[in-house]
């Protein structure tokens, strides 16, 4: 039989699916995958139910229904003052599809793409399938500082795109204004684009503001910004995302999108449009709720003996488990606590290409207080 595609054949099952299956098998509390609990806004869900009844139920435009494109543009201008309009918005079937459309639409074979580790696990397979060559720069744990010289050295004459994830999964880093200004200078000097994964744009803590790279001088035409209704409204199963970009940049991305998912369920789009227009209080209050849950989990992990790392955004808190005296690596640790303590986490090495640090586990804190307390209780009893 002929061989299948080499890029995807070489990929294993995603670590999120692997650990979630293990959690189900052992009845573990799943603090691995980013499943928010107790955070879904009822009015937005009710709006979806009505939209399903009202219809329509046929293909909407591949660019997205007009009310949602208008709502995304209004949301961008209300929060980030980027000056976009509905012609610069394209709706996608989730943010991962948006990322794929951006990369397939922008990369030619041989183009280099600068990526920053630790990174979301879909980036590298998509870059390579598009013919791109990743140039990897690593944030420095435990504070996830940006190595500026290494980043500058990663750029060259073949650089086409920088992938920027802020707030970042898995490490919770929020890039500050000075770091973003440095990145903008590199993009201008090398005449490169940025694909900005900003799905956690509303989930920043400790008075750390989210700053879209697109909002910086000279970046308006260089950035394709990816957003996610699933992250904004804690409705990750809805899979409604979008790309915001200047028309000339959005055009090739839209051509890729039309051959990926083409379009997204119209009822979901209508409900998200309503939420962006009417659920401002929910968006404003969610960060405080999640910051409290982060602190609850971090304090409990520290009392058990782990060493939590800084987290200023996203759903995820990483912790160093070496103080517990565990002798295996992070995959061993996450499997061990799933099977023996009944709590599941994700090994952080899954977010690195090679030579990964293997003493960190990532825990999701977008859970109920009861789930967090029960998980901490199980870990406390086991490690005691």
UniProtKB/TrEMBL annotation:
Gene Ontology CC: cytoplasm
Organism: Magnetospirillum gryphiswaldense (strain DSM 6361 / JCM 21280 / NBRC 15271 / MSR-1)
InterPro entries (UniProt xref): Aminotransferase_I/II_large (IPR004839), Kynurenine-oxoglutarate_AT (IPR051326), PyrdxlP-dep_Trfase (IPR015424), PyrdxlP-dep_Trfase_major (IPR015421), PyrdxlP-dep_Trfase_small (IPR015422)
All copies of domain Aminotransferase class I/classII large, residue ranges: 29-379
A Pfam family hit: Aminotran_1_2
Protein name: Aminotransferase
Enzyme superclass (EC): transferase
Keyword annotations from UniProtKB, A to Z: Aminotransferase, Pyridoxal phosphate, Transferase
GO molecular function: kynurenine-oxoglutarate transaminase activity; pyridoxal phosphate binding
Source organism, top-level taxon: Bacteria
Cofactor: pyridoxal 5'-phosphate
The EC number(s) this enzyme carries: 2.6.1.-
